[in-house]
């Protein structure tokens, strides 16, 4: 087998990034070399969550062809899965859907005459600092604006043994923060293939006791899936970050119903109050969609009021973009793009003020900061509450969370230290 160079282009979510990293490490196990351009093999891992995402997929495919004129081009991921058999691309050699790893590796082995047996890697690194550990895939919620159930399929949970093994390897590779990620994280172990003894809380407990773990964080989780077991773990376990990202999507009950979200404002608020009663300082960030069909000025005002009422630590604002394969695409009372833009700006401003207000609660307090990078004469990291902290080594207090040799900048990167904020 001649030397083979490859390039992977990734669009979309953390789960896609995990999948691309897995593909990359398998290719390296075959002896392939990663390059920036002029590759023999180019793989585009696509996203299909919105029409804008699909437009980006198309542009990325064209870019891959320009940068790698002699390469075999493989389009992979959510776009082919959603539009199975409908995608016709002249400048592409193979088209495979999300999850079709066996087919992908079989094709690559045939093209490049690879003799080696397929061995999936023990560690799948997607980030230089934090380790994103995929524990689950698939969604069956079918929100009216969302294509993910078609793109990722039914709920699938990875076996706990494999997850624990990967977490151990991440720790061995000096990852100090592990982030559990998935399409529908809170439903880990609830349904899907295989017999699962554990739910999400049980899995968290198994990871928290691993020697050498710095800390553990959860990615996005639905408000309906946060049970007493998870809340009590957030209270008792110092290594479990007191931060939950809980999508709200709208503060209007009318819009929530149109979206087919499984809760009301009242339920959401009661659940948040229940969480804060046990973990008072917890950071709760959220996603909100602006400009959903039928959203009136009054609905938007309700959303603004509700976000202030809840007091989110951070808001990710998404301008509504209709996907033609979702129910919402056909809904009447479309909101004009200029109105969506104006409302998004207003909500982002509210989010910035809420974030600043949340951060101010911790002034003069000690935070556990995971140091990610260096600025000019200062360091930058994330607190356990997820907000970013800029500090100088002199701000580090005596009760060190992570061992280090001295306060030199280079020795602090990828460490967890106690910082006076």
Q: Can you walk me through this structure?
A:
This protein starts with a strand and ends with a strand. The protein is 35% helix and 20% strand. It has 13 helices and 16 strands. The protein has four domains: 5-111, 3-Layer(aba) Sandwich (Rossmann fold); 122-241, 2-Layer Sandwich (Transcription Regulator spoIIAA); 244-361, 2-Layer Sandwich (Transcription Regulator spoIIAA), CATH 3.30.750.200; 366-420, OB fold (Dihydrolipoamide Acetyltransferase, E2P). The protein is of the alpha/beta class and 421 residues long. The strands form four sheets. Strands 2-1-3-4-5 form a five-stranded parallel β-sheet, with helices on both faces. Strands 7-6-8-9 form a four-stranded mixed β-sheet, with helices on both faces. It is globular and about 60 Å long. α11 (297-310) packs parallel to α12 (337-360). The mean pLDDT is 90.
Short structural summary:
35% of the residues lie in helices and 20% in strands. The chain is α/β, with parallel strands linked by helices and 421 residues long.
> What is the residue-averaged pLDDT?
90
How many helices does DSSP assign? 13
Order of helices and strands: EHEEHEHEHEHEHEHEHEHHEHEHEEEHE
The coarse silhouette is: globular
The count of strands amounts to 16
- CATH topology assignment of the largest domain: Transcription Regulator spoIIAA
At CATH level 2, the architecture of the largest domain is: 2-Layer Sandwich
- Percentage of residues in helical conformation: 25-40%
Structural class of the secondary elements?
A: alpha/beta
The CATH C-level name of the largest domain is Alpha Beta
Q: What strand line-up does the widest sheet have?
A: 2-1-3-4-5
Count of folded domains: 4
Low-confidence stretches: none
Distance between termini? 56 Å
Strand content: 15-25%
Largest sheet: 5 strands, parallel
Instruction: Give the C-alpha Rg.
Output: 23 Å
């Amino acid at each position: 087998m001649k030397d083979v160079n490859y390039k992977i282009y990734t669009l979309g979510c953390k789960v896609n990034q995990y999948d691309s990293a897995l593909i990359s490490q398998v290719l390296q196990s075959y002896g392939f070399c990663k390059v920036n351009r002029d590759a023999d093999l180019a793989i585009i891992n696509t996203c299909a969550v919105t029409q804008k995402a699909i437009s980006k997929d198309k542009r990325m495919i064209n870019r891959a062809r320009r940068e790698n004129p002699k390469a075999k081009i493989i389009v992979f991921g959510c776009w082919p899965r959603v539009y199975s058999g409908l995608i016709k691309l002249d400048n592409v050699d193979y088209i495979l859907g999300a999850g079709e790893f066996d087919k992908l590796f079989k094709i690559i082995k045939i093209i490049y005459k690879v003799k080696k047996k397929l061995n999936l890697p023990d560690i799948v690194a997607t980030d230089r600092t934090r380790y994103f550990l995929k524990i689950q895939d698939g969604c069956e919620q079918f929100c009216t604006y969302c294509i993910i159930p078609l793109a990722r399929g039914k709920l699938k949970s990875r076996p706990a043994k494999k997850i624990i093994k990967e977490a151990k390897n991440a720790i061995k590779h000096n990852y100090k923060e592990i982030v559990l990620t998935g399409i529908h994280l809170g439903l880990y172990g609830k349904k899907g293939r295989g017999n699962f003894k554990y739910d999400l809380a049980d899995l968290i407990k198994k990871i928290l006791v691993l020697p050498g773990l710095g800390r553990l964080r959860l990615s996005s989780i639905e408000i309906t899936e946060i049970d007493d077991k998870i809340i009590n773990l957030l209270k008792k376990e110092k290594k479990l970050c007191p931060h939950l990202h809980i999508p709200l999507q709208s503060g209007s009950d009318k819009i929530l119903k149109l979206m087919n979200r499984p809760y009301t404002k009242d339920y959401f608020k009661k659940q948040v109050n229940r969480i804060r009663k046990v973990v008072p300082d917890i950071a709760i960030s959220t996603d909100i969609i602006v400009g959903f069909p039928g959203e009136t000025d009054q609905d938007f005002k309700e959303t603004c009021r509700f976000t202030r009422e809840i007091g989110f630590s951070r808001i990710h604002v998404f301008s509504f973009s209709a996907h033609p394969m979702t129910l919402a695409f056909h809904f009447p009372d479309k909101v004009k793009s200029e109105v969506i833009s104006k409302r998004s700006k207003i909500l982002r401003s509210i989010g910035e003020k809420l974030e600043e207000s949340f951060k101010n609660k911790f002034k003069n307090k000690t935070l556990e900061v995971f140091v990610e990078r260096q600025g000019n004469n200062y360091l930058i990291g994330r607190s356990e509450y997820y907000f970013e902290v800029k500090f100088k080594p002199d701000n580090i207090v005596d009760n060190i969370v992570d061992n280090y040799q001295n306060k030199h900048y280079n020795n602090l990167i990828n460490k967890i230290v106690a910082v006076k904020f």
